[in-house]
């Protein structure tokens, strides 16, 4: 099993990406929310993956966090929901929103996903409700909030301030920086270049 792939973002399509690792391009299908949070092409990136093996093909599906991957695995365990349907759900809803929709019996929200009707959404809720606890949902939500707050510190905070000084809004700055893997040796100038490159591609 391939747990994750770490390399250089080489290409981005509507529903997939290519990561270059030592000259080998790994083609990975990802949900739309991952596409929105990716760094610029040419930047380093780490994607947590799940490999589907069939007689005629091997397909990789990827996510920016282990939590997203875990929820994806829960979704494909539901009768009638395959990997592509699961990606569609996670393109429309965040993992936090999906958890609360399941716990709140909100089939209508889940059924907004293309290819997922009300009956399938109701079956999804029925099969996953016992696998998701309210405490887990709140803990994950809190964890994501804390991660966002942590991201606002150090080099990233300086980059946000620099971008806002250039005339970008705070939300635009955070969106551009979100998904860029920041290493211990990365300075503000390098991070700014990656962020501006990402903005230029939007």
Question: Into which percentage range does the β-strand content fall?
Answer: 15-25%
Strand order of the largest sheet: 1-2-3-5-4
Structural class: alpha+beta
Order of helices and strands: EEEHEEHHHHHHHHH
Number of strands: 5
Q: Average pLDDT value?
A: 85
- The share of residues in helices is 40-55%
Query: What is the terminal separation in angstroms?
Result: 34 Å
Radius of gyration: 18 Å
Biggest sheet statistics: 5 strands, mixed, barrel
Shape: globular
Count of helix runs: 10
- Residue windows where pLDDT falls under 50 for at least 5 positions: none
Short description:
By secondary structure, the chain is α+β, with helices and mostly antiparallel strands.
Describe the structure.
This protein is an alpha+beta fold and 202 residues long. The protein contains ten helices and five strands; from the N terminus they run βββαββααααααααα. The protein has helices spanning 32-37, 66-76, 83-92, 95-103, 107-110, 118-128, 134-151, 154-165, 170-177, 188-201; strands at residues 4-12, 16-21, 24-29, 44-53, 58-63. A hairpin with a 2-residue loop joins strand 2 (16-21) and strand 3. Helix 4 runs antiparallel to helix 7 (134-151). It is globular, with a radius of gyration of 18 Å. The model has no long low-confidence stretch (mean pLDDT 85).
């Amino acid at each position: 099993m391939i747990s994750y792939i770490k390399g250089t973002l080489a290409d981005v399509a509507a529903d997939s990406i290519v990561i270059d690792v030592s000259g080998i391009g790994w083609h990975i299908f990802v949900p739309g929310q991952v596409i929105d949070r990716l760094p610029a092409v040419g930047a380093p990136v780490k994607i947590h993956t799940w490999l589907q093996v069939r007689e005629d093909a091997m397909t990789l599906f990827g996510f920016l966090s282990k939590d997203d991957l875990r929820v994806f695995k829960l979704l494909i365990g539901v009768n009638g929901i395959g990997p592509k349907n699961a990606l569609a759900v996670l393109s429309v809803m965040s993992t936090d929103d999906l958890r609360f929709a399941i716990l709140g019996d909100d089939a209508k929200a889940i059924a907004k996903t293309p290819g997922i009707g009300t009956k399938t959404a109701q079956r999804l809720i029925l099969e996953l409700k016992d696998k998701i606890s309210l405490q887990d949902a709140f803990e994950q939500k809190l964890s994501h909030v804390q991660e966002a707050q942590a991201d606002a510190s150090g080099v990233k905070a300086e980059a946000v301030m620099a971008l806002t000084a250039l005339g970008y809004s705070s939300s635009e700055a955070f969106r551009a920086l979100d998904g860029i893997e920041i290493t211990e040796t990365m300075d503000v100038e390098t991070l700014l270049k990656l962020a501006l490159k990402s903005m230029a591609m939007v």
